[in-house]
Amino acid sequence: MFIEKKASFDEGPAAGGFDNDRHRSRYAGTRVRAPVDDSAWTRYRASPRARLDRHDAHSVLFREDDAASHLYEVVSGQIMLYRLLGDGRRQVVDILGDGDLCGYSLTGLYDCTAEALTPAEVRVLDRRDIDQSTELLAHVNRCLLTRIEALHSHAVLLGRKSATERVASFLMRFVPGRGVVGCIGPERHGERHSADTELVLLKMTRQEIADFLGLTIETVSRVLSDLKRRGIISIERNDRIRLVDVCRVCKMTGIH
């Protein structure tokens, strides 16, 4: 049950306690159906109740089964969420970027581990403050709906897509407005197509990509090598992949 009481965030002591700038492009097809008032959230995140923490790459924000006393809002950098099986196998369940939230739990325990992929800044938000404000809860709910949509797509990727489709889908996450339902296609300048290329800056190791896509590291490397051999991508460095023909990569995602 949500508590109707409104919390005050203008005073009081501090509480308890992917680097791709176009990371959020995978939500390009999301339609806003009505104006959204996020003024309460804006006030809260700027108040002393919201603590700004800085994390080095590969530092842990929280671990699976820790007490879920705080939410975390990504201000900059990328955060990886993952679960470990008993035998040590890892499944990366999501990659978060600017504005994304993590750490909300109904059980009182975090259901995954959050680790910074890059140097990152996060706002640490007291769970009690959120639960006591319907306006703050409304913002959290909107963020969770966006995450649900993304996780639905990821479930399809893991359950039905081939290895090539998975790697192509991953690369297209970093191309604004492309690789999603309603893909805008290559831009046009006059009567000629612009060069349909994109440079992807990867902040994940091959192993982390494999764990995200449900593949082995050998399979990820094999697919990338095959795309390079076919002239679809060029690998400038391990962390820099150029999509030579974005439209061809997009058509390999399985959404067309």
From TrEMBL:
Residues 161-247 form the HTH crp-type domain. It comes from the Bacteria. Coiled coil: none annotated. The keyword Amino-acid biosynthesis does not apply. InterPro entries: cNMP-bd_dom, cNMP-bd_dom_sf, Env_Response_Regulators, HTH_CRP, RmlC-like_jellyroll, Tscrpt_reg_HTH_Crp-type_CS, WH-like_DNA-bd_sf, WH_DNA-bd_sf. Pfam families: cNMP_binding, HTH_Crp_2. One of its GO terms (molecular function) is DNA binding. One of its GO terms (cellular component) is cytosol. Keywords: DNA-binding, Transcription, Transcription regulation. The keyword Translocase does not apply. Residues 55-103 form the Cyclic nucleotide-binding domain. PANTHER family: CRP FAMILY TRANSCRIPTIONAL REGULATORY PROTEIN, FUMARATE AND NITRATE REDUCTION REGULATORY PROTEIN. This is Transcriptional regulator. It comes from Pleomorphomonas carboxyditropha.
